[in-house]
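Collaboration report, partner site 2.

Our partner group contributed sequences for two proteins of shared interest, and the home lab folded both. The records are reproduced in the order in which they were received, starting with the first partner submission.
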Amino acid sequence: MIQYGYAGKILRINLSDGIFSDEILDDDFIKKYVGGVGFGARYLYKENPDHVAFSDPQIESFLQTVH
């Protein structure tokens, strides 16, 4: 797996339910969205529908670290 500073996984934490799981990143995803900003932008776009306002309490949010 090509990692370039990434652990190859994303940790998902549901703060409402206290449930967590990890998601393994595949090489195609890594190649397409190289860099922390690319990953973050992709997940923000993927997890939230177009019609949800930034201030909506139902919006998915995330934290990321970039090396």
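Second partner submission, folded after the first:
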Amino acid sequence: MRKTSKDHVEPEHPAKKRNWRNAGASPVTARRKSPKRQESFAAGVGRGMRRAARTAREVARRYGTPIYVWENGKVVAKDPNDDAK
């Protein structure tokens, strides 16, 4: 430590200053995410469509509304409580 005046003491280097708030605490380290396998765009689209269809069936069951699907060139209203997809 270096004295600059009668009452003031200046630290030698800023890096040597101790932070007393975090005294004894271990350093925070970032967690690594496990590497995910890259999927193709088409696979992601298919997964998203299945998820959207599942959500649509859940909402239709909850509110008692039909699900509209395309069958044999026509739009058909289906009961959401039927197990057939």
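Feedback sent to the partner group on the second submission included the following. Residues 41-63 form the longest helix (23 residues). The chain has a mean pLDDT of 80.
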